[in-house]
Amino acid sequence: MCTAATYKTKDFYFGRNLDYEFSYGDEIVIACRNYPFTFSNGETIQSHHALIGMAYVCDGYPLYYDAINEKGLAIAGLNFVGNAHYNEYKPDKENIAQYELIPWILSTCENVNQAKCKLENLNILNKPFNENLPLAQLHWILADKSECITVESMSDGLHIYPNPAGVLTNNPPFPYQMFNLNNYRNLSPKSPVNTFSKELNLDLYSRGMGALGLPGDLSSQSRFVKVAFTKLNSISGDSEYESVSQFFHILHSVEQQKGCCELENQQYEITLYSSCCNCTKGIYYYTTYNNHQISAVNMHNENLDQNKIIRYPQIQKEQIHYQN
Ligand SMILES: C[C@H](CCC(=O)NCCS(=O)(=O)O)[C@H]1CC[C@H]2[C@@H]3[C@H](O)C[C@@H]4C[C@H](O)CC[C@]4(C)[C@H]3C[C@H](O)[C@]12C
């Protein structure tokens, strides 16, 4: 399971929880402006916007999971197993492999509006990166400071939905996730009044009763509701510390603890990392399952006018600040 969200204070923030049972060896990777990207449609982009994101670098190529570019556009891919459908080559379309989608959009688009134009003619190919890697079945959330969309390639075609909640998890398809929010329209951060019956003097015996009924389990539909409620009611000051801190609180409200989501062979899905990108400033903040201290890579602290990728291994060990 995975969860992604957008957030706005003075700057625009975007990030995700990556929930899975193992890591491919995820690293924070900057693709500098002159790192050449070649695509399945035959295009090579020699010079482009710089990118920063989490990726598995395979044969020197950054396979991005989520990333932002220097213009403030952000994308994350989340599992969409059983619903994602990719296609054979279509001569009248822009044929792009699933693993190329993030660089294909971020290298040239400045905002969601430009991305939507580019997506109009897209055909996502059912082409794996190599024979050792599975074809990831994903859907995507794309966002800038003023707009957010969800992209789902299914057997009935490519869908591009406005995403007014600014969140995404996994199955079911996005329209069902949004419809399901109707069932929770009575939830509130405020204390509820007694509308049950005038004849009973029901007590407000606890704080937080306005959100009674908010799901707390780890299923993707429940996480969608929980993270949407948390994000949309979150309050934060404008400073960088307050914004980043609040953003991680939002994501950590739906994190997965080892032992609570059992898979086969005694494996457990956990939140391998949580990310928070300041899309305005090009900074990638993250925490990992075993390291709660926030680490950060600022793309603008590098010379971006190079033709290479720059890699930062995740800092995985818990950093404890002993006070005595
Ligand atoms: C597993 C990740 C998604 C996490 C997620 O949504 N979990 C939910 C599980 S479930 O629905 O609830 O079962 C996805 C997100 C991005 C994916 C990676 C990226 O797409 C890049 C390449 C793509 C290759 O096809 C496969 C390896 C890979 C390196 C992918 C491995 C894996 O599928 C990743 C890491």
UniProtKB/TrEMBL annotation:
It catalyses: cholate + taurine = taurocholate + H2O; taurodeoxycholate + H2O = deoxycholate + taurine. Pathway: Lipid metabolism; bile acid biosynthesis. GO terms for molecular function: choloylglycine hydrolase activity. Keywords: Hydrolase, Lipid metabolism. Pfam families: CBAH (PF02275). It is an enzyme of class 3 (hydrolase). Its EC number is 3.5.1.24. The keyword Hydrolase applies. GO terms for biological process: lipid metabolic process. Residues 2-311 form the Choloylglycine hydrolase/NAAA C-terminal domain. The keyword Hydrolase applies. Belongs to the peptidase C59 family. This is choloylglycine hydrolase. The lineage of its organism: Bacteria, Bacillati, Bacillota, Erysipelotrichia, Erysipelotrichales.
